[in-house]
Amino acid sequence: MDIAKGDVLVMKKNHPCGTNRMLVLRSGMDFRLRCEGCGREFMSPRSKIERNIKSILRESSEP
Predict the structure, then answer these.
(1) pTM of the full predicted structure?
(2) Helix (H) or strand (E) holding 3
């Protein structure tokens, strides 16, 4: 999967705060994500995150 910094991931399961949208702060072998609901930042392995993604919202790059 091609996931880059700045993408918003819509996850299959909700974060404990109730939202399911996560902002990608860092990608590589691990992801650093920020919950858009409560602002909590956490790191998780790439394999775990890729299994739980429902969709990816990308910032539109307009010229």
Answers:
(1) 0.86
(2) none
Distance CA 51, CA 38 (A): 23
Cα separation, 3 vs 24, whole angstroms: 8
CA-CA distance, 55 to 48, in Å (whole number)? 15
Give the Cβ contact number of residue 6 at 10 Å. 12
Structure tokens at 12: 């299959």
Which two tokens mark 25?
Answer: 């702060």
Closest C-alpha among 24, 14, 13 to residue 58:
24
Is the pLDDT at 62 greater than 60? The verdict is: no
Q: Where are the domains of the chain?
A: 8-57
Place of tokens 């392995």: 45
* Maximum alpha-carbon separation in the chain: 38
